[in-house]
Amino acid sequence: xxxxxxxxxxxxxxxxxxxxxxxxxxxxxxxxxxxxxxxxxxxxxxxxxxxxxxxxxxxxxxxxxxxxxxxxxxxxxxxxxxxxxxxxxxxxxxxxxxxxxxxxxxxxxxxxxxxxxxxxxxxxxxxxxxxxxxxxxxxxxxxxxxxxxxxxxxxxxxxxxxxxxx
Amino acid sequence: xxxxxxxxxxxxxxxxxxxxxxxxxxxxxxxxxxxxxxxxxxxxxxxxxxxxxxxxxxxxxxxxxxxxxxxxxxxxxxxxxxxxxxxxxxxxxxxxxxxxxxxxxxxxxxxxxxxxxxxxxxxxxxxxxxxxxxxxxxxxxxxxxxxxxxxxxxxxxxxxxxxxxxxxxxxxxxxxxxxxxxxxxxxxxxxxxxxxxxxxxxxxxxxxxxxxxxxxxxxxxxxxxxxxxxxxxxxxxxxxxxxxxxxxxxxxxxxxxxxxxxx
Lengths: 166, 263
What we know:
The complex is a heterodimer of chains A (about 170) and B (about 260). With about 170 residues, chain A is α+β, with helices and mostly antiparallel strands. Helices cover about 30% and strands about 35% of the residues of chain A. In chain B, the strands form three sheets. Chain B has a six-stranded antiparallel beta sheet. A three-stranded antiparallel beta sheet of chain B has the order 2-6-3. In chain B, strands 4-5 form a two-stranded antiparallel ribbon. Chain B has ten helices and twelve strands.
């Protein structure tokens, strides 16, 4: 497995990535990766230290993990911003969902890529994410990192989650 | 409410065309002008032809055209000022994203976006969301650059072509009823087409130019970027958490395997 940070020249690679099994919230992720993602990455890399990690096996993009500097977490009462990173997307290619490489599950590869990159960057221990409330797979993935605090968001279909990864 | 603005990208061959149209200029002048800081560096796209990579295509911000026209009307310092702003715009994130959207497209589609095939260009903008997003953001950045960073020596306004008239010397009839010579057009012009008219005044006279137009929402580039952000997966809803809730959170204890990451 080869893991590297994406650049805007990976637009074609991203355009061919399929991660949706037909569920609406998975479609949303796939459409985003095919359309606005590269534009956002170009902007976000300068502004929010966006990191889109590509997991490549035998020249095929099998999974990706995208995290960035977070701006959304406040301590209640004081409105003090808590330093944190925000997990934008974790996605595994449809052909590789449930599979393993070198006896390691793709989901574990994703989590290890995420924590390795966070450690390398000496990132804050707090991580946030926005997860569709029906996306049990993603909600379970978050709990593999740490205790999860779930919060209602402005979009009732989605939950905001807070966890501590180290 | 939508406004019509200048098409936010121009091919290098259009710059050469403008140079060749002026007295005493030659193709090699492009390199000389770049060396003298009158032409911005631009960006290059690597299109595909028949499934393989083909020769690179150079493209610029339309500010490079303004710089060139300022130079050709004897306004060297103005030309350099505009070229500096053009260079900043061409190095910006929106322009980089536009290059990424064009990169590795078939060559004929890249040429349509920067060339005079308005029908194909508009079809591509309708069908390719990354291209549409990138063009819109570059168009907003271009408008901002014109209003904030450049002296008001060039006036631009967007409109629609109502008709064509004349014989011998053709004229373009704009929606307002005003007409301008067809010679001012850098690209082919058709009835109903969106166009941007620019007027540059100098001691040498007034220079008119007619370029393809693009319709965008009449918002600032910051607001356009903000609207795009809210539709983006990067959008983060606000979370308020108590100190106790935060303090009670613990990592899972899952063994963390360190993996090498390139870049």
